[in-house]
């Protein structure tokens, strides 16, 4: 029986065009390819964080004790409040982006303009908040001493609040016994072999020890957790002995070398993961600003399509979703 073969004019070609895969335009497909590959990158970072957290499970900093600051409320400890605010702002910016895309489907230029503007504002607030969080994280609050083994010891005293005895941290600025010293940081003009050294620590270990001796209520708290999930607090005698025999360097704040909150790896991962995400948010804000001005100028109105808003919206939703995972794994778990 003879069969009939229709000629389509696409013989010898991989794909002759015509139907769109998944009914998506080329731009949307490329955006999805990028988002899938980028999600694998973030997954690798979060997996690395998980392995590090598991390895140092008994000494990893407690997020509720690290992220306690809120702008304009100096001196008050409000665990995770500001991070929750940042998360809320980013999620709401994702909502306004959804509304902008929907308005674009209805060719409503005024609403697209409004919602894109709100999305940009939300992104800028998040970036400003993250910059402020980095600043407070780097500057530190209480300070600590790094031991010869590279561990961190903190200082505080037991106080009774609402009938419950709890350990309250004390800043090293409040008890360090400052001693006169002519020691200055080596610079190229006065250093050995024309080398420079890092900024000198605010105090010496001897000054910390003298201050600890003078304040009988102070105790040393190590970075290691006990069976109840609390950091181990040493007795008065153990505190004096531990600081005198093992104290090496006074630390204030955090950077890529030292970290007053605990293992240095915690600060490294914090800067790397949140910084990489912040870079993505910055790119997203820049794209949103460009799209916003194109909407105002009527570019997409003349094209008869607001698909570009939708494509940038895919990227913005991805950035928001990634932050939800960062917030969950880094701050909550």
Automatic annotation (TrEMBL):
Keyword Transmembrane set for record: yes
Membrane-crossing segments per the record: 29-52, 80-100, 112-132, 269-300, 312-332
GO molecular function: cytochrome-c oxidase activity
Keyword terms of this UniProt record: Cell membrane, Membrane, Transmembrane, Transmembrane helix
InterPro entries reported in the protein's UniProt record: Cyt_c/ubiquinol_Oxase_su3 (IPR024791), Cyt_c_oxidase-like_su3 (IPR000298), Cyt_c_oxidase_su3-like_sf (IPR035973), Cyt_c_oxidase_su3_a-hlx (IPR013833)
GO BP, one annotated term: aerobic electron transport chain
GO cellular component: plasma membrane
Domain Heme-copper oxidase subunit III family profile: 1-333
Membrane topology classification: Multi-pass membrane protein
Pfam families: COX3
Location within or outside the cell: Cell membrane
Stated family: Belongs to the cytochrome c oxidase subunit 3 family.
The name this protein goes by in its record: Cytochrome c oxidase subunit 3
Organism: Winogradskyella epiphytica
